[in-house]
Write a structure and sequence with these properties.
The structure holds two protein chains of two kinds. Chain A is α/β, with parallel strands linked by helices. Chain A has nine helices and twelve strands. Helices cover about 30% and strands about 30% of the residues of chain A. The chains are: A alpha/beta, B mainly alpha.
């Protein structure tokens, strides 16, 4: 397994946010993390790259328990794209993408050709090489998200974690970013709200509710009318799309 | 597929440009210090200044009047070097804190350091704490460190983001300023109150070589430590979690850099009093010239800070004949409009 999460618990302020979650993700696969607001998606992503420490349970990358890994070694392997990370600094696109090389450089090592290559490839992946010199604060929301993904790719990760990367984006950019991530040759976990997009782009889905996994498997197995009623409290029709062959959710108002 | 990326042109990207820039700014600082030594009540030609310095440093035997030799070496050069060290240390502290706390208004005194230093100084000067053992500077240094520890403990207790440190600093500053005012109003006579006032506004009068032997190494070591962590500071651009996700040992970096800025500030404040605006304004000016990357920003801040402070000292000595203004008044008189200008220029199209 690329990422394996085994009976992980984490609490904050006396509240159990992640309550015994176990999930495995195979190398190169894309896992969609679904669930209502406050179900523990963001917290789980932060636990996987050890921005928070688990209270109990084990998270492993490959065969290594992250609790025993150096922070630098985790950062060389796992990249995180946070939800709407912003800055007031007058940085350019290139400055931001270059940050991705931080874990691969010592405090005084000069910038190398390998660093340049990683940064250039990352910019090409997200289609922004021509914008390298542009200032961050002049970018649109979609462009900023793509720059964050480029920064994460410059880390040359084998695992990529994305926390609602399509929030606040128009539909064109949502599709662009998700198809970009789905095509990347890395293992990824994406926290998502849109069930249809999750079905279209993810190999597997896990649904969280009150800090527990209530369903996991392929989109066909997971997205059922009962599950949507139980977890999200809305009623829906589910059918296989005649166009892309994946599950398609339509909501009922009655 | 071509992988060529248009690199934005930034001054100092090439090694020779960087070397030229460093040389040029050192020459500028040297020139400013020579000016500071030459200008004053008794005007001394640059040539005489050079001779006097050479007599002391290289054992040359140029014929000079004892008075000139004494003024240059014992009074003005030590004073100028201290101004340069203090300017560099305060500007550097401001640049580091603005990055670490992700707040453009962060500056060295936000940690309560200057308020604590003044309470310490006043306690020694007026109440006579540690009479005969503690000098005013030592009292100020202890006050500064105590205030910093209290503010850090308050911020840590209130666990939360960088904003908490700033709020804790505001609370700490208010408390220590109140203590200072309380001591001054209840215990000081008019003479003492005037002395305290002068010290609180920052003053380079009475600076001698032993002060420089403390200030210069502190500034240099602070500089080396901050530059060592320049890339870690870059990683804080998008916040603490983003830095941690890039492999930065966030807590260690914070403790080391907060400690370094606290010690730099405490050392400078204990020698020259609290000189405002340098720590706040200079990093913004440096960012204008050198960009946001800390590998360039920190050296630029240190250099501009020291040149500015030496210039401010010259102005404080010559602007009113027969009188020396507190240097803090000069830095604020120039700093406040400069800051307003920076804000105005940096405004973004909404």
């Amino acid at each position: 397994m690329s990422i394996s999460i085994n009976d992980v618990r984490w609490s904050a302020g006396g509240l159990m946010i992640v309550n015994g979650i176990s999930i495995d993700v195979a190398p190169g696969k894309t896992l969609g993390l679904l669930g209502p607001n406050g179900s523990g998606k963001s917290s789980l992503l932060k636990l996987i790259c050890r921005l928070r420490n688990v209270k109990s349970g084990v998270i492993a990358l490959g065969n290594a328990d992250i609790a025993g890994m150096a922070r630098l070694d985790i950062a060389r392997r796992v990249a995180l794209v946070e939800q709407q990370a912003a800055t007031e600094a007058q940085v350019t696109v290139l400055d931001v993408v270059r940050l991705g090389r931080t874990p691969h450089r010592g405090p005084l090592t000069p910038w190398s050709a390998a660093d340049d290559q990683a940064v250039n490839e990352a910019l090409h992946h997200v289609g922004l090489p021509a914008r390298a010199g542009q200032f961050w604060h002049t970018l649109s929301g979609g462009e900023r998200q793509r720059v964050h993904i480029a920064r994460a790719l410059a880390q040359t990760p084998s695992e990529l974690l994305l926390d609602e990367p399509t929030n606040h984006l128009d539909i064109q950019h949502q599709l662009e970013i998700l198809s970009l991530v789905a095509k990347l040759p890395v293992t990824s976990i994406i926290a998502l709200h849109d069930l249809n997009l999750a079905a279209m782009f993810c190999d597997n889905l896990a649904v969280l509710h009150h800090g527990k996994v209530v369903a996991a498997g392929t989109p066909e197995e997971v997205l059922t009318e009962d599950l949507i009623a139980n977890v999200f409290g809305v009623r829906a029709y589910i059918e296989r799309s005649p166009h892309h062959g994946r599950q398609h959710v339509q909501y009922r108002l009655d | 597929m071509s992988l060529a990326v248009v690199q934005p042109v930034v001054i100092g990207e090439r090694w020779w440009a960087r070397l030229a820039l460093i040389t040029l700014s050192l020459v500028a600082l040297g020139f400013m210090i020579s000016l500071a030594v030459s200008i004053g009540e008794i005007s001394i030609p640059l040539e005489t200044t050079a001779k006097a310095v050479s007599n002391r440093l290289f054992g040359t035997a140029f014929e000079l009047s004892r008075i000139h030799q004494g003024i240059v070496w014992d009074y003005r050069l030590s004073r100028a070097l201290l101004a340069a060290s203090a300017g560099a240390a305060l500007a550097l502290s401001g640049a580091v804190l603005q990055a670490l706390l992700r707040n453009p208004l962060a500056e060295p005194y936000v940690l309560g350091i200057s308020a604590g230093a003044s309470t310490g100084a006043v306690a020694v000067m007026i109440l006579g704490f540690g009479y005969g053992v503690l000098t005013l500077s030592a009292g100020a240094f202890i006050g500064a460190v105590v205030a910093f520890i209290l503010v850090s403990a308050l911020a840590a207790g209130a666990a939360g983001g960088a904003d908490r440190i700033i709020l804790a600093g505001v609370a700490g500053s208010q408390l220590f300023n109140a203590l200072t005012s309380y001591i001054v109003t209840t215990s000081a006579n008019a003479e003492q109150a005037r002395g305290v006032m002068f010290w609180l506004l920052g003053s380079l009068s009475g600076v001698r070589w032993p002060d420089v032997y403390l200030a210069a190494p502190v500034a240099l070591i602070g500089f080396a430590v901050s530059v060592f962590y320049a890339r870690a500071l870059d990683a804080f651009t998008f916040g603490v979690d983003a830095a941690a996700a890039l492999g930065i040992a966030v807590n260690r970096v914070r403790v080391i850099l907060l400690g370094a800025t606290a010690l730099m500030t405490a050392a400078m404040v204990s020698i020259v009093g609290s000189i405002g605006f340098v720590g706040l304004v200079i990093p913004h000016a440096a960012r204008f010239l050198a960009g946001p990357s800390h590998g360039r920003l920190l050296p630029a801040s240190a250099m501009i800070g020291s040149i500015f402070m030496v210039a401010a000292d010259i102005v404080s000595r010559i602007i009113i004949p027969q009188q020396i203004l507190p240097i803090g008044v000069v830095t604020a008189l120039f700093g406040a409009p400069a800051f307003a200008l920076i804000l105005y220029k940096a405004r973004r199209p909404v």
